[in-house]
Design goal:
heterodimer, A: alpha/beta, 4-stranded antiparallel beta sheet, B: 336 residues, alpha/beta
């Protein structure tokens, strides 16, 4: 029996701005088990980062507020704990790494001091001990000459090494959950491959649950066991990666997969982009946020958000188009023709 | 017929330090790059950050002075061109920039932005220019109504279209696309790629497509040149390069790209390179790739940079700069 680490139900986080209310996250639910990797995929403004920040309780208030839903971590309601308790949970139980490792490290302190501080704060170790642990952690994440590197400042590290240092800091207290928010977006592909390797290695070693937030469907295919597709603050489809990639049910998921040029494509296929522009988060329709751009929109779509429909084991979709109709449309799309044949 | 010939192009930036700002070193950003582009084709220039791909693009337009090397466009020597000759040349060679936010003047209307090249080159009357702007807006998928608006009223994808319309204003023959889609979301990126492909067909354009995303480069390019630390290490037809890469760096680069297909990903073997890209201010001796190369032999790899040349076994114009390239047996199936 796998251990449930996190259960998010109907989470809504809104930002109250002068221009109006931005419903950045709107009724999002998911779970995360030990040893499991969840990929949250979406374009800019889809709400994937705000979802992560809500779990960490790092939403700036004002203007933001978690307006509804629940976040349960191993039976404890994270929305009910005090901010002191939450500080203990961050780092000890749930850790996060961010997109830009330069802005997450303090430029005026040595890398070793920054890692050691986390260990002292959360584990009450002595200065000496925590420094020794910092050296070991840097070695664990694959930084060469860790005993010299630990004495250096962030500017002396390359982008890839900074991200390794961030991972070292994140795993220093052996958290159950590691949230990685676009951890490799600022890095080159060969360095990205190294960092993904480190994350996978850490997960195997510590049996943590990983939430991988990314816009890159390739990264999700490489890393995740299950995936959640977000658009305009809503989850539109979720499920085991194979189901979502080979048997997608939401027109937005079709659009995303059809938009991608593929390295393994043997003959050139014209891309099938999603027409139109990304939605204005202040003016989202009451119904499905993809209405307006969806080529198969029904009259009901803009007014009312669809109810959840389960289409397979753990594979759910929010879409008003009847399932038989959806399968027919998908079979006609260039990207999925060969899937239907095989 | 090649429209652009680049030979041994170099761009070294001085590192200045101290009170007197004396030159204490050089950044070898572009260090001996050669390639040619045929009329109507797309040459992809791919590499990681700092490899000199963008600098190459700028130098060959003479937006930056070259340190050495020659560039000829349609037989005309770009590097030696006089001011007036260069202005005439720039009608034929245009550029689309990466950042759709930084490349448009926020204080000017879209009409003004797109008409500027026409004004500078003194083409047409005011009314004719206005008509041309409307026409260009439609060509790139916007409408005439957009002409009086300002850049901030547009999304990233729409701004990039404005940048393309401006590049098209003078009916150029060659467009240098410097990371034109990397700032865009996937769904918008696909619109842009299709637009660039359609324009190429309609207007018989030639592209130099600079990008770090190998999937995009493969999709759009006829041929691809791979750069590493200021040098081209491999150049080949796009389909050949992706199936039969000969340079170990190209292999590692290709294997590092995640493919949006879970089954393929589970079955793939990844070649993970160790270490970081060295600084172009202090490039390694010999082959620039040798410190990270799995096939490195102290002699000759650390002694001299291998020349970029055609391998007899490969045939065609597949060139590689490596002493120990992967050789593909003619009998062996592709990719084996």
């Amino acid at each position: 029996m796998t251990e449930r680490l996190l259960e998010v139900t109907d989470l809504s986080t809104h930002f109250f701005t002068h221009a109006g209310v931005v419903k950045a996250v709107n009724g999002v639910s998911f779970t995360l088990d030990r040893d499991e990797t969840l990929g949250i995929v979406g374009e800019s403004g889809s709400g994937k980062t705000v979802t992560a920040m809500s779990i960490m309780r790092l939403i700036p208030d004002p203007p933001g507020r978690i307006v509804g839903g629940g976040i349960m971590h191993k039976g404890r309601d994270l929305l009910a704990v005090s901010s002191e308790e939450m500080s203990d949970i961050r780092g000890n139980d749930i850790a996060m790494i961010f997109q830009d490792p330069m802005t997450s490290l303090n430029p005026v302190f040595k890398v070793g001091d920054q890692i050691a501080e986390v260990i002292r704060r959360h584990q009450g170790k002595s200065k000496r001990e925590s420094w020794k642990m910092a050296v070991e952690l840097l070695a664990t994440v694959g930084i060469p000459d860790p005993d010299q590197r630990v004495d250096q400042y962030p500017f002396e590290f390359s982008g890839g090494m900074r991200q390794r240092a961030m991972i070292a800091m994140a795993i220093s207290c052996n958290p159950d959950i590691l949230i990685a928010d676009e951890p490799t977006t600022a890095l080159d592909v060969t360095i990205q491959a190294q960092i993904m390797d480190v994350i996978r290695d850490m997960q195997r070693r510590y049996h943590s649950g990983v939430i991988m937030i990314t816009h890159d469907l390739g990264v999700v295919a490489q890393m995740a066991d299950k995936v959640m597709v977000m658009y305009g603050g809503r989850t539109l489809e979720f499920g085991p990666v194979d189901d979502v990639y080979y048997n997608p049910h939401q027109p937005y998921t079709w659009g995303l997969l059809g938009s991608l040029p593929r390295l393994d494509e043997t003959e050139k296929q014209r891309l099938t982009p999603i027409e139109g522009q990304p939605p204005n988060l202040l003016l989202l329709p009451a119904g499905c946020p993809f209405s307006g751009r969806c080529p198969y929109e029904l009259p009901v779509c803009a007014g009312e958000f669809p109810t959840l429909e389960m289409v397979g084991g753990g594979h759910g979709v929010y879409c008003w188009i009847p399932i038989g109709e959806r399968e027919k449309i998908r079979a006609g799309l260039p990207r999925f023709r060969h899937e239907a044949a095989s | 017929m090649s429209i652009l010939e680049v030979k041994d192009l170099k761009k070294h930036f001085p590192i200045k330090s101290g009170l007197l700002k004396r030159t204490t070193g050089w950044v070898y950003a572009v260090d001996g790059v050669s390639f040619s582009i045929d009329e109507g084709e797309t040459l992809g220039l791919v590499g990681e950050s700092g490899c000199g791909k963008s600098t190459s693009g700028r130098v060959l337009l003479r937006l930056l002075p070259a340190t050495a090397g020659t560039v000829s466009f349609d037989g005309i020597d770009v590097m030696a061109a006089s001011r007036t000759a260069l202005q005439r040349l720039r009608r034929d060679m245009q550029i689309v920039f990466q950042d759709p936010y930084a490349c448009l003047n926020p204080r000017r209307t879209v009409k003004n932005i797109i008409a500027e090249p026409l004004r500078i080159h003194d083409i047409g009357t005011e009314a004719e220019r206005k008509r041309r702007v409307f026409e260009l807006l439609e060509t790139v998928g916007l409408t005439a109504e957009h002409a009086e608006r300002y850049p901030h009223e547009f999304s990233g994808g729409q701004r990039q279209r404005i940048g393309v319309a401006r590049a098209l204003a003078l009916n150029p023959r060659l467009i240098i696309c410097d990371e034109p889609v990397s700032a865009l979301d996937v769904s918008i990126q696909a619109q842009m790629i299709n637009l660039l492909e359609d324009l190429q067909k309609e207007l018989k354009l030639t592209y130099l497509f600079i990008a770090h995303d190998l999937s995009v480069v493969k999709h759009i390019s006829t041929r691809v040149a791979v750069m590493y630390l200021g040098k081209v290490v491999e150049i080949a037809d796009s389909s050949v390069l992706y199936i039969k890469p000969q340079h170990p760096y190209t292999e590692a680069l290709l294997s590092a790209v995640p493919i949006p297909d879970p089954r393929t990903e589970r079955e793939r073997r990844r070649l993970i390179l160790e270490g970081d890209v060295p600084s172009p201010a202090n490039p390694p001796s010999g082959c620039v790739f040798h410190p990270r190369c799995p096939r490195m032999q102290p002699d000759p790899c650390t002694k001299a940079m291998p020349p970029l040349e055609v391998l007899d076994t490969a045939g065609g114009d597949h060139k590689v700069a490596c002493y120990f390239p992967t050789r593909y047996d003619a009998q062996a199936p592709a990719g084996a």
